[in-house]
Amino acid sequence: xxxxxxxxxxxxxxxxxxxxxxxxxxxxxxxxxxxxxxxxxxxxxxxxxxxxxxxxxxxxxxxxxxxxxxxxxxxxxxxxxxxxxxxxxxxxxxxxxxxxxxxxxxxxxxxxxxxxxxxxxxxxxxxxxxxxxxxxxxxxxxxxxxxxxxxxxxxxxxxxxxxxxxxxxxxxxxxxxxxxxxxxxxxxxxxxxxxxxxxxxxxxxxxxxxxxxxxxxxxxxxxxxxxxxxxxxxxxxxxxxxxxxxxxxxxxxxx
Length: 255
Ligand SMILES: C[S@@+](CC[C@H](N)C(=O)[O-])C[C@H]1O[C@@H](n2cnc3c(N)ncnc32)[C@H](O)[C@@H]1O
Prior knowledge:
Layout: H1 5-8, H2 12-24, E1 33-37, H3 43-51, E2 56-61, H4 64-71, E3 78-81, E4 93-99, H5 108-117, E5 119-130, H6 136-146, H7 151-154, H8 166-173, E6 177-191, H9 196-202, H10 207-212, H11 215-232, E7 241-254
Parallel strand pairs: 1-2, 1-4, 2-3, 4-5
Antiparallel strand pairs: 5-7, 6-7
Helix pairs in contact: 2-3, 6-11
The chain binds S-adenosylmethionine.
The site of S-adenosylmethionine has 20 residues, from α2.
């Protein structure tokens, strides 16, 4: 997909917060190797590199645009263009980290145990994924997509619920793990600006729409979706918008 680092960076602090919360939940570790899967523009990878300053750190992402932004940050990190589905480390990794990326990778039942198998004994796999696919931001997107002249073009392009129930991840990981900690947090992001939820989803959930529609049809779609979002997420007394956002966290220690 055509990831846009500038659009994604519009709400940088709110988007980064779960990643920092995931880092804060890591058990004490002195990893020799750290890999950030789906590292995007690399800000969290840099936070990992600063925290584990003696580790070899790599960031893997399939978007050249996102990695191009990351590469401007630091040359200590090995920025690698690659697809998580086919990624395999040369040697077991001590900390395998992934923030807001694995929800884009199909086949979780295979990918999660496989990724844990790449972690060294005693090492950690730490993952955060959104689990807000039934919230108005996503439900309205699917609703508008299904009801308009664009319906045929968009059929099958928007995913219903790519992230499963929390307990499912426990079941997938526990056979290879000494310990699996799974929890959810619902953030209440405080967003500035006009139509901030629209601007938020333009960088993520709306990408298939932005890639498929053009011209007047795209403008019509955006206006319908914008109006629906404005009704679902009204401005608060200070003019800002609250955006409830549930996220799933997993920290698994390899057996
Ligand atoms: C929402 S961004 C998160 C970026 C970063 N982890 C962060 O927290 O800021 C998702 C990233 O996952 C990457 N991604 C999605 N599917 C991928 C795949 N199959 N292989 C590698 N990267 C992928 C995208 O290119 C994008 O940069």
